[in-house]
Amino acid sequence: MSHAPSHSSSFVIQSGLASRRAKNPAFRPLYQQIKELILRSLGAGDWPPGSMIPSEIDLAAQYGVSQGTVRKAIDELAAENLLVRLQGKGTFVASHSDPNAPYRFLRLRPDDGRALEKRSQALSCAVIPADETVASAFAIQAGDPVIAVERILCLNNDAAAFDQIFLAADSFAGLTLEMLRQEQRPFYGILEGRFGVRMIHAEEKLRAITADARVAERLALSNGTPILLVERTAYTYGDKVVEWRRGFYRTDRYHYANELG
Amino acid sequence: MSHAPSHSSSFVIQSGLASRRAKNPAFRPLYQQIKELILRSLGAGDWPPGSMIPSEIDLAAQYGVSQGTVRKAIDELAAENLLVRLQGKGTFVASHSDPNAPYRFLRLRPDDGRALEKRSQALSCAVIPADETVASAFAIQAGDPVIAVERILCLNNDAAAFDQIFLAADSFAGLTLEMLRQEQRPFYGILEGRFGVRMIHAEEKLRAITADARVAERLALSNGTPILLVERTAYTYGDKVVEWRRGFYRTDRYHYANELG
DNA sequence: AAGTGGTCTAGACCACTCG
DNA sequence: GAGTGGTCTAGACCACTTA
User: Fold this and answer.
1) Contact, B128 vs B145, CB < 8 A?
2) Kind and range of the H or E element at B30?
3) Is the CB of A201 less than 8 angstroms away from the CB of B261?
4) Per CA to C1' distance, which residue is closest to C10?
5) How far is A10 from chain B (nearest CA, A)?
6) What is the pLDDT of residues A35-64, one digit of tens each?
7) B206 → chain A, closest CA residue
8) A196, B234, B239, B257: which could join B243 in a potential S-S bond, CB 3.0 to 4.6 Å?
9) CA closest to C14 C1', residue
10) CB pairs under 8 A between A and B
11) Bases in strand C with any atom closer than 7 Å to a protein CB
12) What are the b/e assignments for B202-218, b being 16+ CB within 10 Å?
């Protein structure tokens, strides 16, 4: 028999997998079903960020499929930056605290390509009622509580960006300014470590605007300087919006780098 | 025997493939070697944009490897948007003239998510000496000839961007304003069709600036309006730079959309 | 040496498109 | 029905890390 063998063993998980034996109009590949099971385990926190997941052979046995099928599922998850494969070591849950890929979502770069030391300086952290804009991003009612964080981002010890960050109140209840100031990890690393909520994907909208008095002061620029406005919506597992932010990037010494494939 | 079989047949191409029989310090996977062979054929124009490449089975026979190995090579090329797989039909060379993915590199979107009709209006096309900036992008000498094109990009019949485009003179000799005006295809589609040079990858650097008189006039904006400056370096096969451009995007009604993974 | 991911093969069968 | 890509399996062996 060549595929989808009728395992007589009693793996609980496998019983949920749809058969593809006959011509099936609602056909879904096995590896996608496996991918979803892994995704569910990731979302449920079965394997915390940075930890190693079971080996391909183990997973294949658990799910009652061949190693190749598990492999294809993991391949896709690795391509989406949810898992990291390390030959000889194992497969690990991706983490924003990973020193090898810090600030993975930050696209601001110095014009001269010098290596950059990144540092975040939190200014405030408070629960506030959402305004219209923020509420619509989270699909909640205006006035509902959200957590608001303001911070300066320094590149090579120079204030490069000012961020107004809004977090879903239910996901990050208890976040304090002290946490943000004491921790050394990047912002998303802190959220991941303290609240078990990992940012896996984000969308940004960029616009050119002129700095108002407030932003100009934060970035030590003169009023009216052109500024890059970056609005970001960030998602965790299950495409749930857990952050919306408004970033003001100075682009006189820096630029926003993007790759088109 | 399980892999890298000693095919006794006399496929010319295979003779160039490095064996992985023994512990090989300079080990390169077979599928990457196959990938490179396919890439070479693409770069050489053996299979023009939009055309179908040989089937996986054919390629496997030609290269003297298994279908699975060819498959993995094609998988990666498809992931890089160099090939497009269509089940039941075949595998095709990606094309900027493909009506399914027009203006693939354009990230400017209307603020309301309406479907957009895109149209390019060429203003000028001439061979000029490269200035310092352009020369350094192409790694040529200042004063060396390049082709300069200016154009307005309209979204839903509204001037949304003004582009100053510079093209490598050796790759696009003979390009005229008439060609650009008469053709219906997008800009990269024209270059691809007329000169066989396909843009496969680009890098962009974004900055906020204020519109000078010239740009303001082209986009019907008042002088000093904040404008998104987008500098693009575009590459063809072999990472050869064939285009550098400076785009001025208005972002009052539009925004630059980006995905972070 | 053991355990992990990575490569490669051979073969079977399914899904899809087109004539 | 023929041809294409897509899925799945089983098995062998290689590359790499760790102990």
Assistant:
1) yes
2) helix B30-44
3) yes
4) B66
5) 31
6) 999 999 999 999 999 999 999 999 999 999
7) A256
8) B234
9) A23
10) 97
11) 3-18
12) bebbbbbbbbeeebbeb
d(CA A82, CA A236): 11
Query: pTM for this structure?
Result: 0.90
* Pure H helices in B93-176: 132-138
SS3 for A16-38 is HCCCCCCCCCCCCCHHHHHHHHH
Q: Which nucleotide is nearest to A74 (CA to C1')?
A: C5
If we measure between CA atoms, which residue out of B193, B201, B191 comes closest to residue B168?
B191
pLDDT in 10s for each residue of chain A, 261 residues: 333 333 333 233 333 455 544 466 678 999 999 999 999 999 999 999 999 999 999 999 999 999 999 999 999 999 999 999 999 999 999 999 998 878 999 999 999 978 778 999 999 999 999 999 999 999 999 999 999 999 999 999 999 999 999 999 999 999 999 999 999 899 999 999 999 999 999 999 999 999 999 999 999 999 999 999 999 999 999 999 999 999 999 999 999 999 998
Domains of chain B: 13-93 (1.10.10.10), 108-256 (3.40.1410.10)
d(C-alpha B257, C-alpha B261), whole Å: 13
Q: Do B208 and A202 touch (CB under 8 A)?
A: no
Six-digit token pair at B97?
């003239």
- The alpha carbon of residue B15 is apart from the nearest alpha carbon of chain A, in Å, by 29
Q: How far is it, in rounded angstroms, from Cα B141 to Cα B143?
A: 6
For chain A, the 3-state helix, strand and coil shares in percent, each to the nearest 5, are 25, 30, 40
Q: Which residues of B touch A204 (CB under 8 A)?
A: 257-260
Would the pLDDT of B99 be above 90? no
Closest of A96, A50, A170, A190 to residue A42, by C-alpha: A50
Yes or no, beta carbons of A206 and B105 under 8 Å apart: no
Are the Cβ atoms of B258 and A203 closer than 8 angstroms?
A: yes
Residue of A nearest to B236 (CA): A261
- Compute CA distances B101 → A80, B113, B179, B258, whole Å: 22, 17, 22, 17
Q: Which residue is closest to D8 in terms of CA–C1' distance?
A: A3
Torsional class of B53: left (φ above 0), alpha (ψ -120 to 50), beta (otherwise): beta
Q: Do B260 and A202 touch (CB under 8 A)?
A: yes
Express each pLDDT in A106-141 by its tens digit.
999 999 978 778 999 999 999 999 999 999 999 999
